[in-house]
Write a structure and sequence with these properties.
mainly alpha; 0% strand
Length: 162
């Protein structure tokens, strides 16, 4: 199944997709690829907002792009690895029996699967600017991301879920 088909399937049943991702052999390279794809897509989603910000403020666009690139492609993956580690430890304290790899896949896949909403948020921020629509899309992204992550963690740590 292609990545785009798996993303669509995640909106129908996130637990099933994470179960399918975890059914094969552990591959840290695959986990890193999922995370890096999510971070690159998130960076791309920032481009319209940064362009608008540079235009309205009169700033140069390149330093804004460089900062976003540094943050999303080089720093964010480290933060997400740490977050996956903490979520795995907390799951273990709550009785989870999964692995660190499963916790990483659950988090990284949730980021990638929710990325279409990040792209929509970036478009809204770039073309419409601040307002109720941007807030609504941001809130929707947060809810969907948490839904995917929690459903994935339930499968990865406790074997529960769809």
């Amino acid at each position: 199944m292609s990545v785009s088909q798996q993303i669509v399937a995640t909106y129908k049943g996130p637990g099933r997709v994470v179960r399918r991702l975890l059914s094969g052999p552990e591959s840290e390279g695959r986990a890193l690829a999922i995370l890096m794809a999510a971070c690159v897509i998130t960076f791309i989603g920032q481009l319209p907002r940064l362009s608008r910000e540079a235009h309205l403020s009169g700033e140069e666009l390149n330093p804004l792009l460089g900062g976003a690139l540094l943050g999303w492609v080089f720093m964010a993956p480290l933060i997400f690895y740490a977050l996956a580690f903490v979520s795995h430890l907390l799951s273990r304290l709550a009785g989870g029996r999964g692995t660190g790899y499963g916790a990483r896949i659950a988090l990284f896949w949730a980021l990638l699967a929710a990325s279409p909403l990040i792209l929509l948020w970036g478009l809204m921020a770039g073309f419409a600017g601040p307002g109720a629509g941007l807030t609504l899309v941001g809130l929707l992204w947060c809810v969907v991301f948490l839904w995917f992550w929690i459903a994935g963690l339930r499968v990865a740590e406790w074997g529960m879920g769809e």
